[in-house]
Amino acid sequence: MAFVILNWGYILTATFLCGFAFSKFVEKVFGFQIKNLVELSFWGVVFATVYAQVFSLFGGVGITANLLLISVCILIFVVWKKEIAAIFFEKLCNRTVLYKITIVVITVLWCYCTSRGYMHYDSDLYHAQSIRWIEEYGIVKGLGNIHVRFAYNSSIFALSALYSMRGIAGQSLHTVNGLIALLLSIEVLEGFKKRFALSDFARIGAFYYLTLIYRDIVAPASDYCVMCVVFYIVIRWLSYLEAEEQNIAPYGLLCVMGVFGITLKLTAGVLLLLLLKPAYELFKERRYREIVLYLLTGLFVLAPWMLRTAFLSGYLIYPFPALDVLHVDWKIDAAAAALDAAEIKTWGRGLNNAALAGLPVKEWFPHWFQTMLPVTGKLLILADLACIVIFAVFAIRLLIKAVRKENVYNIANRVLVLAAVAVSYLFWQLSAPLLRYGYAYVLLLLTLTAGFVYQKIRKSGHMMCCAVVLLLAAKTISLAGYVIDTADKPYYIAQQNYGFYDLDSFVAQGVTFYYPKNGDRVGYDNFPAVPRREEIVFRGAHIRNGFKPSGK
Predict the structure, then answer these.
(1) DSSP assignment, residue 544?
(2) Helix (H) / strand (E) containing 508
(3) Which of 233, 295, 342, 355 has its CB surrounded by the most CB atoms within 10 Å?
(4) Which of 225, 223, 249, 222 is nearest to 237 (CA)?
(5) 3-state secondary structure of 512
(6) H/E element holding 22?
(7) If we measure between CA atoms, which residue out of 371, 374, 118 comes closest to residue 224?
(8) Whole-angstrom distance, CA of residue 332 vs CA of residue 347
(9) DSSP tag of 529
(10) Between β-strands 537-538 and 547-548, what pairing exists: parallel, antiparallel or unpaired?
(11) Residue 548 DSSP label
(12) How much is the pTM?
């Protein structure tokens, strides 16, 4: 726990300062001030991730990358120290004692959960090794040829490499997911100030999700961070709508954060339907300069991730072999990429057979529903299917009002959020519906639809308050049980490490590669490692030159 909290202190300092510098850019260019501390920190996370990815294109992401980042942060503090001190005084010092105590308690709880727990299967399969490759080499062309999952390229791995602190902590720390969960928890705490607003229903969904992942947050998996980012975008978007924010900048910027979500995991891309609001406003007012600036900012976030994907796999987006526009010798074989894409889809549907990727929905859905979902998951999916019908009714009513030329602008803004969530849910449901891939869409569709209905029929908020209190009480008891069960684990100083496995090795072109004697997991320490022994073809004399597909 001690290493986790120290690591968080460093990350929060750096990300806040980066976020504050970005806010000055936003203020100058778009005329909007970002004053929310959590939002500043989230933007700092975005740009620290972009920085780590850019740095990885030139070399290993380690001490040099951190020293350069620290230098930039010192410069930011020196230039704006008075404004930084003022915003801290305004936002923190004026808070109530109860609020401050609550923040401390939440921080300690997430620190505890980040120090121990269930290490995701995929973390020891490829997450840890992906992070190690970024630490050691930054980027290696054709790395996906020795293990296709190295080509998945979630940007969270670059951020994890930046803040792993292996040389200081004596192990590679993996605390970023826990920190993002903590920031979302603080955002959840910011709500419920008056009557239940629509953003508060999104917060309820986020709270429920956070209570599902505290056992797993120790793992550097991309699923948890992208779901937290999706929740955050929706909550902030609705909060701005409810505050009647007229400046289009915060909505445009949240769309840029949606682009960041894509670099975490491609499934977040559908949420960019929210673009319709800022695009409509900007085109209507012919603010073409701002449109270009938003596009350039989004490209700034997307470009290093896409470059890394191209270097790792030979494709701009992987695994989508249809987007075959690059002609490079390290490109993953198209058949292997297609098989990988089919396996992702079929594993999510519980079929475990890539040949069944084209099976119609009516054939795979019943099997998936029966075998892949816990009881709570079944109830959530049934509720979501009902919510799709309710959403259709909302949309039809809105269309009728529009035809009658009634003022529908305010409700249309909220329906757009529900539409983006509903389409995201449908995309997840019809593609690779593994529950952890789409928990945010499952929960947001339900809670936001409930929020719409509640706002139509409400007479009193007492029933909602009782429901929230009961949920809080039940989850508190569950968390207390988890703390009691894991209190004997020796992770109060160091963080729980990656797994250790019985490995064998082989030599290819003078390089020792490790592989497991049983199963396919390899952990972090033995490097480089692959899930099985197979032919490895180098592109040149050194491992830095990368790898070609076998047989070439």
Answers:
(1) G
(2) strand 503-508
(3) 233
(4) 249
(5) strand
(6) helix 2-30
(7) 118
(8) 21
(9) B
(10) antiparallel
(11) E
(12) 0.95
Give me the DSSP letters along 136-152.
HTS--TTGGGT-GGGGS
Q: What is the pLDDT of residues 398-442, one digit of tens each?
A: 778 776 766 677 778 888 999 999 999 999 999 989 999 999 999
Which residue in 439, 36, 39 sits closest to 226, CA to CA? Answer: 439
Token readout for 453 is 């209905």
Alpha helices in 404-512 (DSSP H): 409-430, 435-457, 462-486
pLDDT in tens, 273-313: 999 999 999 999 999 999 999 999 999 999 999 999 999 99
Whether 156 and 268 have beta carbons less than 8 Å apart is answered as no
Side chain identity, residue 14 = A
Q: Residue 361 is encoded by which pair of tokens?
A: 């929905």
**Cα–Cα distance measured from residue 516 to residue 318, given in angstroms and rounded to the nearest whole number:** 26
Distance CA 46, CA 226 (A): 12
Place of tokens 């900012």: 297
Q: How many C-beta neighbours within 10 Å does residue 207 have? A: 21
| pLDDT tier for residue 325 given thresholds of 50, 70 and 90 | confident
Q: What would the two tokens of residue 51 be? A: 């920085």
Contacts of the segment 102-109: beta carbons below 8 A, 24+ positions apart: 102/189, 103/186, 103/189, 106/182, 106/185, 106/186, 106/189, 107/5, 107/8, 107/182, 109/214, 109/479
Is residue 43 within 8 A of residue 18, CB to CB? The reply is yes
Tokens encoding 251: 């909505």
Q: Round to whole Å and give the CA distance between 220 and 120.
A: 8
- Which pair of structure tokens corresponds to residue 441? 């869409």
Per-residue tokens: 195: 């009557």
Decide: 178 and 5 in contact? Cβ < 8 Å: no
DSSP per-residue letters across 152-170: S--HHHHHHHHT--HHHHS
Contact at 8 Å (CB) between 437 and 424? Answer: no
Q: How many CA atoms lie within 13 A of 278 on its CB side?
A: 25
What are the DSSP calls for 271-336, one per residue? GGGGGHHHHHHHHHTT-HHHHHHHHHHHHHHHHHHHHHHHHHHSSSSTT-TT------TTPPPHHH
Q: What are phi and psi of 529, to 5 degrees?
A: -135, 150
